[in-house]
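Supplementary notes (optional reading)

For those who missed the lab, this is the record we used. Protein: Glutathionylspermidine synthase pre-ATP-grasp-like domain-containing protein. Length: 378 residues.
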Amino acid sequence: MERITVPKRDDWQARCEEDGFSIHSIDGLYWNEGYAFRFSGAEIDALDDATAELHAMCLDLVADVVQRGHYQDYGLSDEAIALAESSWRSHQPSLYGRFDLAYDGRSIKLLEYNADTPTGLLESSVIQWRWLTDLGLPDQFNSIHEKLIDGWRRLLFGHPSSLHFAASQCAGAEDWDTLHYLLDTALQAGCQRASSLNIEDIGEREGWLVDSRGEPIQALFKLYPFEWLAAECGDALASTPTRLLEPAWKLLLSTKAILPMLWRRHPGHPLLLESHFAGQMAAVAGQWAKKPLLSREGANVSRLEDGRQQSLSGSHHLDLYDESGYVLQRWVDLPVFDGLRACVGAWVVNDLPAGIGIREERSQVTGNGALFIPHFFE
């Protein structure tokens, strides 16, 4: 694993925009043209195997939680628990998710799992694949596009052929680029009708969720945190025949509560970092990352060193995220290349490892300002 310079394409901005990637230069630079990570085939195999193993561990965790009814660590409402449990017992499939990994070419460690609303999908998929082919590079860990289409075909089989895609009207271009890309892959998979709307415009009529025209929503893909949706309209979700994607059981994985829960089930596992719920440790010696159970874009993350809390560059604080509680995760340094810390996002699509996207950041926490850098392997 090494970071190298590669030729810049003269028309790279136009190439990105042709594929619907509008944020290539957000905040001056996002897509880091001219650089790449080069991997060996053995390193890619290791990332593929780790992604598959982590996914299996997470599904096993959900199965155990539902079977035993042990939801006390989640802080979920009874309505949200009922939704999650019902969707798991009825075998509602998931489309995608992203594991964030610390990887230096040798050791792979899970940092967290973006199970419900991961972004960065378009650039990890068609954008870096086009970059690879334009430069004539040998290969890439990237079957995201094909697996998304296969996943939609599985989700649509025997179900309504009309899909609505929703995100918040306050969401940025990153969310909407991701949403429109997912809509396009659904159409390529054979969906007969698909449209997008603001999630704030969704209403309820005769038990159905309805769009801004009052038409029933047969199936809704929402790029919007499920815990927010459950808090805002839990009663409607409990009774509506509208099918929700991602399924509600992703509530049981889209929280950092899974970090200590996985550690309890697999203590000492080489892919995991020791993790505990804050307040459940007799002594806090050494270095730990303190993370809220529910947060996004690196918010409210700090470091404890022998019990002393330190702020971290790249993180910001929102009072909202204090309410969910915190976990402590054994500190691990991300590998540094040319002064930038690299975090590997490993995608699971249609229950299979599908590829990686790499973000790099000068700050200690990988936040919204991190750059995206493509990769290839030989």
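If you only remember one thing from this example: Residues 274-331 form one domain.
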